[in-house]
Amino acid sequence: MLEKHRDTLDQALEAIRSRAYWSPHPEHPKAYGAASGKEGSLGAEEGQAAFDALRGTRFELPGQPGTDGWTATESSPYGLGMGIEYPHPDPDRLLPAMRLAMPAWREAGPEARAAVCLEILARISARTHEFAHAVMHTSGQAFMMAFQAGGPHAQDRGMEAVAYAYVEQVRTPDAADWSKPQGKRDPLNLSKQFTAVGRGISLLIGCNTFPTWNGYPGLFASLATGNPVLVKPHPRAVLPLALTVRIAREVLHEAGFDPNLVALAAEREGEGLAKELAVRPEVRIIDYTGSTAFGEWLETHARQAQVYTEKAGVNTVVIDSTDDYRGMLGNLAFSLSLYSGQMCTTPQNLLIPRDGISTDDGDKSYDEVVADLAGAVGKLLGDDARANALLGAIVNPQVGERIDAAGSLGEVALASRSVTNPDFPGATVRTPVIIKLESAKPDAEAVYLSECFGPVSFAVAVESTPDAVALLRHTVREKGAMTVGAYTTSPDMERLIEDACLEECAQLSLNLTGGVYVNQTAAFSDFHGSGGNPAANAALVDGAFVSNRFRTVEVRRPA
User: Over the stretch 19-36, which tens digit does the pLDDT of each residue have?
Assistant: First the structure.
C-alpha cells in the first residue's frame, strides 16, 4: 500500500501547500466501471444493482464485537423502501475491543497509516455509483449531486484530512541524537525517540444531509493520527457510513491490522445513543455536524473529549452593486435552489439597500432586485425535469413545515410550488420561497436572525450598504455563518465587507456570477467554515483540525 499510494500522497501534500485545483477522484459517472481500468470499479448498472441488493437485508459486519441486536431506522425521502437492518452495539463490549487495536496501529507510524487510509478511499471511490444511490436515498439529494458531493467531493475531503494529518505528525522527527557540550568534561549525550500517539477512541456523529461529505474529514483525520473511530450515523442516513465502515474494516484486515479500528454504532429509533457514547471515558475525540442545541450540549458535557462541531449559522449575502446583473441573479438563483437549500452553506439573508443598487443594466430598486431574483429562480426551475435534478427531495417533514409557514413571516416575493418527480412519486419536492422583510421593523430581526433550514430566504431591506455590513457583523458574531457572499463594484465597499469578514472570521465569496457558487467549496483549496464564529469551532480542513487528535510522546535514553 505504501508503494501504491506514495504518488497520490505526494500530490495531495503539494495540493494543500499550493491551494491549486487537484482531485484524484473523477466527477463524471462514465469514469467508473470497466472503462476506468481500476479493479473492482462499479459502473452505473453495477452500482445500482449493488444498492438494490442491500435493500431488505441485514447489513453484516463480520467480526465486529458487541452486537446485541439489530435496528432499521431509514426511509428514503424518495419513497423507496429501504428495510436494511444494522448491528446495534453493546458499548461495554465494543469499546474495549477498539482500544485493544490501538498499539499496533500506533507502532505502524504516520506513513503506513496514511497508506491504509488512502487504500480505503480508493476502494470507496471504485464503488462511487453504489454510494451515490445510498446517499441519494438517505439524504434526498438528487442523483448527480449525490454522486458528486457524496462521492468524489467527499473522498477529496477525506484525502485532504489524511494529508494534513501526515504533515502534522512528521513535523517532528522519529528520532534525534542530542549532545550538550560540557567544556572540559564529556558532553551529555542522549538518544531521543518521538512517537505520535492517538488520544483514544474517536466518535463520529453523522448528519442526515451530507453523511459522507461531512463525515469523512473527521473519520480520516482521526484514523490517520492513530485513533480508532466509532461511527454513529444519523438514524435516517446509516447506509453510506455503514458501507464506509465495512470497506475500512476489510482494508485494515488485509493490511494486517485489527479491523476494530473502525466500527459502526447504529442506534434504535429515539434511543439517543450519541449522548450515551459522547460521555464515555474511552471516547477522547468527537466530530459532530448538526443542530446548535446538541452541538452546544456536546461542548458542555463531553468534557473528557476534544470536540469538533459544525452547527447552524445564518449565511448572508450583501448586495451593493454589480457589473453583471444577469450573472448575479443566475448565480444567486442556483445557490438558493441547489438541494432545496438544505445545505449548511446556502444563503439565507440577502441584504439589499432600500434605495436600490447600481448595475450594468441600470439602477435597480429594492423591489426590482427582489422581483428579478424571484423571476430568475422561477425561470431556473420552470422545467420540472431540471427542477428535480437541482432540488432533490425534502429531507424531512420539518423542512416542509418551514416552507409552509414562511408566508406568515413577511411579504411573499416568491411562493414555493410542489414538483412531481415521475421516477419517484413518493418524493416531496418543493421550490424555494423568498420573503421580503424590513430590517427596521422590530419583529423582523427575530425572523432573519434565526436559521430557517431549507429553501427559505429573506430579502432584507436596509438603509445602506454600510448598514448592511453592520448587520452582517452582528449576524456572524451572534449566530455564526459558514459562508458570506457579496456583490459590489466599489473598492471602498469591498474593503468594508472584507474587513468585516476578517474581523468576524467568516469565509467570503465576492462577485460570483459564473459557475462557482457561494455554497460550494473545493477540497485542497477552500476551507469549509473557519472555526472562528459560532457556526463551527473547526475548519475543514486545516492543521488545527488534525493536530489535537494526537500527542507526541518522547522517550529519552543515554546515548
Answer: 999 999 999 999 999 877
Whether the CA torsion 529, 531, 532, 533 is positive or negative: it is positive
CA–CA separation, 246 and 352 (whole Å): 49
Query: What pTM does this model have?
Result: 0.95
Three-state secondary structure readout of 88-145: EECHHHHHHHHHHCHHHHHHHHHHHHHHHHHHHHHHHHHCHHHHHHHHHHHHCCCHHH
pLDDT, tens digit, 9 for 90 and up, residues 53-106: 999 999 999 999 999 999 999 999 999 999 999 999 999 999 999 999 999 999
312-334 pLDDT tens trace: 899 999 999 999 999 999 999 99
| Cβ within 8 Å of residue 254, ≥6 positions away | none
C-alpha torsion 424→426→427→431, nearest 10: 110
Contacts of 130 (CB under 8 A, 6+ apart): 42, 46, 47, 50, 51, 243
- The answer to whether 89 touches 67, Cβ cutoff 8 Å, is yes
Among the listed residues 158, 283, 136, the one whose alpha carbon sits nearest the alpha carbon of residue 221: 158
**Whether 437 contacts 458, CB under 8 Å:** yes
Cis peptide before 541 (omega within 30 of 0): yes
